[in-house]
Amino acid sequence: MSLQMWTKLRPFVHKFLEEASKMYKIYVYTMGERAYALKMAKLLDPTGRYFGTRVISQGDSTHKHQKDLDVVLGSESAVVILDDTDNVWPRHRANLIVTERYHFFSSSCRQYNIQGQSLTQAMRDETQMEGTLASILCVLRSVHKMFFDKHNDTNIVQSGFSSRDVRQVLKNVRLKVLESCKIVFSQIFPTDFPAEKHHLWQMAEELGATCSTILDESITHVVALDLGTDKAHWAFQFKCHLVHPRWLEAASYLWQKQIEENFSITTNKNSSGLKSVESIPVLPQEVEEREVNSSRDE
Asked: Residue 140's Cα: distance from chain center in Å?
């Protein structure tokens, strides 16, 4: 059966699966139909070495337009989810590592309303050492090590690993990403909007940063869109990092602190002023139904 679509595999994906399979039992879970799921699984794992028969598709889901761990064999406290969107996992976001979408084809950018060039148009691709999968593999290794480290639980000898919860491990790993950072936001939030309720403020705290509305010598980063604000001027005066909000988003996607110079801003409020980097993450959009005859990035 032909699906009539182009598919580009993400660089390093086979090595990623090889390494991840040494630590985890891997499932494929897609909201696509069964034929699509099997084709993609075959493309990613031609010999069935990594997935076996563990392929879950739309027809297997017990909730319409949602994914759920009730169709996965194993305890929820020991399952890590990799997905490019979080809104299909309303009950299991604590298990989730949200990955950046792979926009290789220009049709993918159009489908998800992404402004800017696709990787094809930019005539570049992710690299094995610095791409998204390399970063995620490091996270998976850290999570696996912490989950099975007996020194993290004095009761492990008596209780075994049943007392461990990967959701807490994931939370702890994220809290280390920006743990040394203290952040002030400059004209990012709408007027009269509670700052602590904004998704960027909450994202920063989830990554371990301390957020503040007051400038003082302990501030390490000012997040802004425009060089013309008072806080931006303060950042220059006191040699504090001044970064675009995408610095936070990239840290969230890649689970590691990013080089600030790659996320500098310009005086043009409508321009991010980002320097050339290997991959610029964007916040995930709602999953759309995929049509035949479209290009597909995996």
From this structure: 12
